[in-house]
Structures are given as structure tokens and as C-alpha cells.
Amino acid sequence: MAEKEKISQTISRELLNMIEVGKFPPGSKLPTEMELAAHFGVSRIPIREALSVLRAAGVISSRQGGGSYVEERAATFLLHQIRIENDDKEVIKHLFEMRKILEPEAAYLAALRRTPEQLEQMEQALKWLEREFTDEEKMGTEADIEFHRSIILATQNPIMIHMIESLSALYERALKITLEPNLVLKQRRKAALKEHQDILLAIKMEEPELAKIQSVIHLKNAEKKLSLLF
Amino acid sequence: MAEKEKISQTISRELLNMIEVGKFPPGSKLPTEMELAAHFGVSRIPIREALSVLRAAGVISSRQGGGSYVEERAATFLLHQIRIENDDKEVIKHLFEMRKILEPEAAYLAALRRTPEQLEQMEQALKWLEREFTDEEKMGTEADIEFHRSIILATQNPIMIHMIESLSALYERALKITLEPNLVLKQRRKAALKEHQDILLAIKMEEPELAKIQSVIHLKNAEKKLSLLF
DNA sequence: TAATTTTATTTGTAATACAAAATTAATTTT
DNA sequence: AAAATTAATTTTGTATTACAAATAAAATTA
């Protein structure tokens, strides 16, 4: 199950790395597709696929007849390409830092704007989480993510939604890693569930400030739990 | 200067729209590349380019021999593809909402962690902004962005950095639109400059809370200015 | 019925060719 | 000689055809 990688993926990763390392500094011209193809020993096809990924990520831009150039403000990395390893505590810390910034505000906005349908969606997610928590085996990470996701959706801010969505894959993996070895969790399950219920209640009552506070509390407790790991 | 669009771009936009509209719901299988090619009346090449963009954005996933499927949690849109039109006030509002959430926290973190080099970078950007402001003609949008960007970089959080970078193109355009017709700005220039200096000073003194407050003040004033437009 | 093999489908890559845009070199004009 | 125009070259964008490799569907066999 070695998940064989596509050639174009390998190449886009390689090229991105070269750009990050400074082999192709911002503003510089990349080699032509033919040259890259020769260099990597492949045809133009996977080269073009790789370049199109970098283009979509805003790392390079190409002009027909001109060539491909590294963008002046090349995004530092493709979020989809971040791989969290078990020992990769830095990424998890940074991710949690962003959660502490985004989620309380999202809860605030959700309390302001949520539609009845969105409230229903949150309640469904919470019920799912409750079911998962009664089962000793399950961790409920998916339900957890779905709950937080439903709150984000209720903010009605497409940019906020996009940011969280682009983080979700990363978030999911980070959550699994942090929850997996955590035996303390079982004792904290009821407390965690209560925290989720409190957030939802505040959103239901349309109390933005309260929702924000409940979210802060939840994240603070989650962080305590997290700090035991590191 | 009509900026002719590539076929693959047109198609990726079309496909994305179809997905958003529900023509291809999450989890469903897309038509084969051959079918798509026939449908759009092009060869497989631009189809593959379009699909690779959607793949990079996490909207779809493909398996050799299997086909392409819409991801269960397809990102709602590609940030790079958002076009802000002059009458597109909604996007600008949402963008500003995100700035209010992210930037004060970024200033906080920057005050905590900035290296001397990063402080230097911020000061350079501020000087640039001062020069631009003395010139009646120039608006200083680029310098403005560079200043805020230098603060973000000093947070040392790669996820934060990535988020802002991915927003920067959008931000730049929004800023130009909001500043362009604003004649009041000239009177507010000194005030705005002072606000920037205050933020930098707090970061220089390594006073996180103060930096956050100064950032909030700055954004509050900017929002007042903005509210005149809408 | 269940497991295995075969067949067909579909994406991934290759090679070649040409169109279209941009860059560079050459030419002409002033 | 300098500037403008034109021509030639380079380079990306798209098309066509072909085949490899992985998956999914169908047929076969136990």
C-alpha cells in the first residue's frame, strides 16, 4: 500500500523545494518546459502538470511565448502538501495557535448569523459526537471536526470558510495524533462534551460574546490536554 | 488588453461552478476526461490541466484507472480565482472582517517573536510608506501591504503566513478599490501613518498587548473610512 | 455462492506536431 | 546612429495518437 506517487507530484514537490531553497528566487525565470523535461528525464506532460499545480497555488505564473516566472510573493508552501508526522510537534502547535485565533471569532459570528438550518446542522453534529463518546473504542475525531466545521459555515464569511476548509485535512490529522495516545481523554470526555454543548447553546441563544467565551474556554482546556503531550 | 483567458482556466472555472451548483455533488464521480473533452469541444490536454488545478485545490481527487471524484469536503472556492469587481462590496466586507480577526493577533505574536532582522524589514516598509505618503499622487497601497506583510512574517507561524499570502492578491485589489475614490484619505494620511508607527513601536518594544490594541485601533479607523464608501 | 481470471475502462505518461504569443535579432526608416 | 518596423526564433498552449498502468466490471471456474 505504498501509495505510489505520480511523477508530476514528485516534480512539483522538487520544483517547490528548489524555489524555497532559493535556486529559483522570486521574479526569476524558470527553465523552459523542454529543459525541465530533459532535466527530470520525462516528457513535457508531467512537467506541465507540475507547473499547473504551482500556478494554481500562486507560486509561479506563465505567459505563452514568454516562459514561467517565480511570483514575487510566492506562497511559502502548499498547505495540501504539509505532512504531519508523529514527531512533528511544531506544525501542531502552530495549527493550534491558529485555532485559538479563528474559532472564538467564528463562534461569535455564527451566533450572530446562523440560520435555523445551520443550527440544525450543528445539533446533528453534536448528537453524532455524543454517540461516538458513549462508545469506548471510538475517538469521535470526525464528529468533532464536523461540529467545528458547522460553526464555521454559519459565519457566512466565504473567506473564513475557505481558510478552515484548506486547514481541515491538516486539522484532522493533527487531531488524530493528539487524541490517539491520550488516555486521559476518557476522563475528560464528559467535560469536553459539556464544553461543546455550551458553545452550541450560546449560538442557539444568539449570544455572540458568550459563544466566543465558551469557545475560548474549550480551547484553553484542550490546550491543557495538549500540553501534557509535549 | 483583454487578458485572454486560457481554455483550461475557463474549464476549471466551469467545472468548479458545476460542482458548487450541485451538478456534481460531493462524493460523485466526474465524467471521464474523454467525455469532458467531447463536452467542451477540446482535447484531453486542457481538461487535464483544469482537473489538476481542482486537484491541487483539494476539490477533486483522481485515481488512475478509477476516475475523478468530488471530494467530500470540497473547498468552496479557489481563492485565486475570486475576482473583485468594483461593485463587489460583499467580498471586501468579508475580507475586512478577516483582517480584523487576524491582524491584531498577528501584531501580538510579532511583538513576542520578531527577530532584529524582521524588525528592520518592518522599519524599511514603514519608511517606504512615509515616502509614498509625501507624494500627493501615489496611494502607497503596495507599501501598506508590505508593512502588514512584514508583521505577519514576524509571527513565525507558517500557517498564519500561508493564510495571509493566499489572501494578499485579493487584499491588494480590495485596497486599491477602497482607496482609489477616497478623497478624504489625504486628510487622514497623517493619522494613518501615525497608527502604523504606533503598531511598529509596540512591536519594537516587545509589548504584545499594546501591539494588538494599536492594530485594533488602526483597523477601527480604517473601517470608519471604509463605511463612507458603502 | 465465492473466489479467481479475464476483459474493458480510465487515468498517467510519451512523442510529435502545430498554433499563438512573446522575445530577440535583423532590417528598414528617419 | 537611433528609433521604429519587420522578421525570425523561442516558448507556452493545444491537438492528436499511442501505449502503459491501475482500477472496475464481467466472465469464468471451483
UniProtKB/TrEMBL annotation, chains A, B:
Transmembrane segments: none annotated. Gene3D superfamilies: GntR ligand-binding domain-like, Winged helix-like DNA-binding domain superfamily/Winged helix DNA-binding domain. Residues 5-73 form the HTH gntR-type domain. Residues 112-139 form a coiled coil. One of its GO terms (molecular function) is DNA binding. Keywords: Coiled coil, DNA-binding, Transcription, Transcription regulation. The keyword Iron-sulfur does not apply. InterPro entries: GntR_C (IPR011711), TF_FadR/GntR_C (IPR008920), Tscrpt_reg_HTH_GntR (IPR000524), WH-like_DNA-bd_sf (IPR036388), WH_DNA-bd_sf (IPR036390). This is FadR family transcriptional regulator.
